[in-house]
Amino acid sequence: MRSPDPADFYDVRSLLSDDEQEVQDSVARFVDEQVLPIISDCFEEDRFPLELVPQMAEMGLFGCNLDGYGCAGLNNVSYGLVCQELERGDSGVRSFVSVQNSLCMYPIHRWGSEEQKKRWLPEMAAGRLIGCFGLTEPDGGSDPGTMRTRARRDGDDWILNGAKMWITNGTIADLAIVWAASDDGVLGFVVEKGTPGYEARDIRRKMSLRASITSELFFDDVRVPEANRLPEARGLAAPLACLTQARYGIAWGAVGAATACLEEAREFASARVLFGRPLDHTQTIQRRLADIVRRITTARLMALQLGRLKDAGRMHFAQVSLAKWNNVRMALDVAREVRDILGGGGITLDHHAIRHALNLESVITYEGTETIHELIVGRTITGVAAF
Ligand code: TGC
Ligand code: FAD
Q: What is the CATH topology of the domain spanning 12-125?
């Protein structure tokens, strides 16, 4: 019998349909050929590789698990595999797709009017319009229910005032999905670039997700027509439902980042000779690699079962929290472990592990910190909210 593939020890791939395998293979090729050759330089230069957007659009990655309006209509397992392969390249590239798909196209698709869907979704699927998602504010992102950004009705328009912080793609976005408190509760708006009073500024000096754009958004008496409000989105449940979609993709993506690190560690440990033998002939290194494989295998199975539940319409958001928490924690620990196995060279961008480790410091914080996900699961177990 053939020995198991270390990167997929339980042959999870055999549980995928032919179509799902095809999606995985085509995104894997894109990452190998287009992302990996440039991504370390992008990270060093603090630059998002905007040149990849047309190719990702051509592959149908934007809105890929949505139906109609130029979207590919893939199932959710396929969307998970897209995220897994992209994050094997870099969390910033996966982030771009998460924001475009789960945080911007999803709310328009779910809560937008027919006119809004026709106006924005095909252009977003084609990568000609880029979106960003403004929920977090400077005073604290974990508790969005206390947001200060306000929307006030003025005739046929709304007037927005406030600020959003840590917004992926903010300065390159053509439109922002902005969540604001109003007399009718939390409402969602599409704010278009160039609207007077709306400004986006990049956040600098980041040591994480450097191949991704992170911005602040400012709203100073921004007049938004009623036609740009998502009519069916009401209450905090709407933005939180978007988060569920994005967290789902992250649970898969983290497996990709960890797998990239494992492959790098295996290659290094078999080539490096110390004390007269290759590193991977030592018990300590074998135990460390075995433990990494154990953790990745568990996470991979968790992601797939989550995807099957989602495709069956049976996924609860607390299950997404458990997977986001487990898989990102796993990937961060694995990336740090591999960084150490690589020795001194592991601190440079000649290897991938340090970039993944630094990126995952953001991933464990955004889309709900580890603590928030522990508390969401705790609330589901006990019935008591302890936030
Ligand atoms: P709570 O009372 O729990 O909920 C209010 C309503 O929402 C419903 N709900 C959800 N629905 C879908 N998915 C979820 N995950 C949901 N969580 C809650 C809930 O059933 C309720 O519905 P209804 O109909 O009864 O009104 O609200 P709360 O204020 O107590 O908050 C709970 C808490 C702490 C879990 C929530 O605020 C939270 O998740 N905080 C973390 C915030 C966060 O994750 N922010 C992420 C910002 S976006 C981002 O980081 C993008 S990174 C992008 C990238 O680059 O990839
Ligand atoms: P805070 O909420 O202030 O939390 C600080 C600390 O307190 C954390 O350790 C937290 O776990 C802990 N804590 C919170 N509540 C409790 C409690 N009840 N008990 C114990 N401890 C608690 N947001 C968007 O809206 N759109 C985006 O596109 C986006 N992109 C991002 C990109 C990057 C690179 C980063 C870093 C963040 C991004 N975010 C985005 C924001 C992200 O979602 C928030 O950073 C995150 O939700 C945490 O909010 P905060 O940073 O304000 O931390």
A: Butyryl-Coa Dehydrogenase, subunit A; domain 1 (1.10.540)
